[in-house]
Amino acid sequence: MGFLAAALVSLAALAGASPVQHGSLKRQVSQLRDKYDFVVVGGGTSGLTVADRLSAAFPAKTVLVIEYGDVHFAPGVFDPPTDWITPAPDSAPAWSLTSLPNPDMGNKTAFVQAGQVVGGSSAVNGQFFDRPDRFDCDAWTEAGGPEFAQGDITWSWSGMFPYFKKSVTFTEPTADIVRQYNYTWDMSAYGGSTPIHSTYGPFQWADQTVLGKAWMEMSIKPVKECAGGDKEGICWVPTSQHPVTGERSHAGLGHYADVQPRANYDLLVQHQVVRVVYPKGTNTSPPLVETRSLADDHLFNVTVQGEVIISAGALHTPTVLQRSGIGPASFLASAGIPVVLDLPGVGSNLQDHAGPPVTWNYTQPYEFFPLPSEMTSNATFKSDAIAAFNATPAGGPYTLAGGNSAIYVSLPHMTPNYTTIVSKIRQMATSNSAASYLPPDLQSESSIIAGYHAQLLALANLLSNRAAPSLETPWATSEFPAGTAAWSFLLHPLSRGTVRLNLTDPLAPPVLDYRAGSNPVDFDMHLAQVRYLRRLLETPTMQQHGATETGPGADVAGDDEALVEYVKQQIVLSFMHPCCTAAMLPRNRGGVVGVDLKVHGAKGLRVVDISVLPLVPGAHLSATAYAVGEKAADIIIREWKGR
Fold first, then answer.
1. Which of 25, 190, 204, 240 has the greatest CB tally within 10 Å of its CB?
2. How far apart are CA 562 and CA 296, in angstroms?
């Protein structure tokens, strides 16, 4: 018996029954009911959305959320008393994971965080609340093939847009703020009444317009509303914050605290779901939920009458499944875990946004006020900023979070060589050479290969579309150290990584292997994006301010090999958007769940979080995680009402 199997057996021996007490927040097994209709594994963005909707739709059915973390105040990414750079000292707890060394990127490692708190990553993220464009969502359906495109449940843009609208309440800025900053929006992209809030903050740094003007001089056009399905251009992006208080809006508030008391909705904190257990096989429904107390390691089973919904996120959903014996058979065998269900896609297909910067210095001094440096050099300014944030309504720099403007540019608008790049992608998919770029243990898995080919063909169509962005560059100021850099977010990487159980400690955070750059065409796109962003420094506005390039520089940018080395040295391997590790694809394409989010071959078990996306969207993930939760809840409610 392997170490992992022995550890799980020894934990299971501790399982026992407990008496029930009622209430909402639970901290120990003695407070739980004898059984629940629905159990949600993970109290994060999607999980709390589902729990809220199910408990409201079925007052007679009980819902339990099991969360590793606890209830915690979640300040914004830039709240008093911090400056523009320093993180909030009382930030909510987060998982901090470092990947294995990445050989194709000079052995650099990716650093990624995820919320370890009620509210999940919505309680710790950068509050940048953009949505994918319509072509991202359509590509998910295309990757799934005909059976995913023609059923009653579709995840195309038309199938997702209503849930983006439902998932958030957008509050329009005041007329004075609109005149001051030229904000634009279209309320037809919104319309929800959910207590998850977004708005445009009543503040910008004084030099925000510098890059804004320069982007327009590069022929990038402003888009009136980037949340309605079309976002190629310059975008205003809402911030996930309350429109009056300016404080962070997150799932722990909007889908838990704000909807209590609700007699059928329980939240168990400081507990880890070890695995789901099928005593009589996966054709029975539903499984038990084996759970561990973080306080004393006591292990117990939660009995479920309806179904189990795993919402532990892209980094932890795979490990719950793998500990359950659901995953790649070869990996489970190496871990000493009996194979319950061979699904090679569990923990595969890891994607994230990554990219290097283009950097410069200014030779002409700025004459703008205020700039971020005032937060550290001007005590009066900072004191006034704190007072403005604490006013009603909140105002001043602390309402800006990390910024709310970005450009999104398609590959055809960046380089005339896009046809060559797209042809390479199509050729590797149709010639079967793409399998060599997959993780070694998956290169002979026919379903994974078929799914990767389908993804590549969908991405080839996406990348050849002039209206579909492949580059993001967010900005808020150009002042050092927050500025003087234009970051190149590669929105649609071709490389695929893995999330695997830690074999030396099965209950510890997982082992991440990002494998960025393992598909060499990613470097073609990195080079195209860096060369495009260098054109920023040639614009009249940037020349007026004496912008002088410091990286990569003309000599490096003019040589493919040198620029590849620059990318390897300067790249950030994770912009904190991991996804896609329990992909919604047919089983014969390496999928883990179907369009109804049920795990293939496992009754009474679904996955509802950002891991189900087959392709990482060209957006930060928070708004999408809410929409996935809303759509999943609707699917589940309709199914159970039909029964």
1. 240
2. 54
193 is in an annotated binding site: no
Residue range 312-367, pLDDT digits in tens: 999 999 999 999 999 999 999 999 999 999 999 999 999 999 999 999 999 887 78
Cα 585 → chain centroid: 18
Provide the β-strand partners of residue 276: 289
| C-alpha closest to that of 575 among 130, 71, 107, 246 | 130
Among 72, 316, 453, 577, the active-site one is 577
* 608 annotated ligand-binding residue: no
CA–CA dist 449, 432 (Å, integer): 8
Check if 577 is active-site: yes
178 is in an annotated binding site: no
Q: E strand or H helix at 140, and its extent? A: helix 134-144
- Greatest C-alpha distance within the chain: 73
- Predicted confidence at residue 365, as pLDDT, reads 76
pLDDT tens digits along 153-180: 999 999 999 999 999 999 999 999 999 9
Closest to 609 measured CA to CA, from 271, 301, 197, 320: 320
φ/ψ of residue 303, rounded to 5: -85, 135
109 CB contacts (<8 Å, ≥6 apart)? 98, 99, 100, 101, 102, 573
Active site residue 250: no
Neighbouring CB atoms inside 10 A of 14's CB total: 14
Contacts of 452 (CB under 8 A, 6+ apart): 429, 434, 435, 438, 496, 590
Which residues have C-beta within 8 Å of that of residue 270, sequence separation ≥ 6?
Answer: 27, 67, 68, 69, 70, 293, 294, 295
Q: Give the residue from 240, 140, 138 showing the smallest Cα distance to 195.
A: 240
A 10 A CB-CB count for 392 gives 8
For residue 8, the Cα-to-chain-centroid distance in whole angstroms is 30
Q: For the chain, what is the radius of gyration of the CA atoms?
A: 24
φ and ψ at residue 251, rounded to 5 degrees: -65, -30
Nearest Cα neighbor of 134 from 225, 236, 228 is 228
Question: Which is nearest to 375 in space by CA: 83, 79, 78?
Answer: 83
Dihedral of the alpha carbons of 122, 123, 124, 126, in degrees to the nearest 10: 50
- Cα–Cα distance, 555 to 533 (Å, whole number): 15
| CA gap 30, 638 in Å, rounded | 33
The upper half-sphere exposure of residue 511, i.e. CA atoms within 13 Å in the direction of its Cβ, equals 12
Q: Which residue has the tokens 């990038």?
A: 220
- What whole-number distance in Å separates Cα of residue 399 and Cα of residue 102? 37
Nearest of 349, 254, 211 to residue 630 by alpha carbon: 254
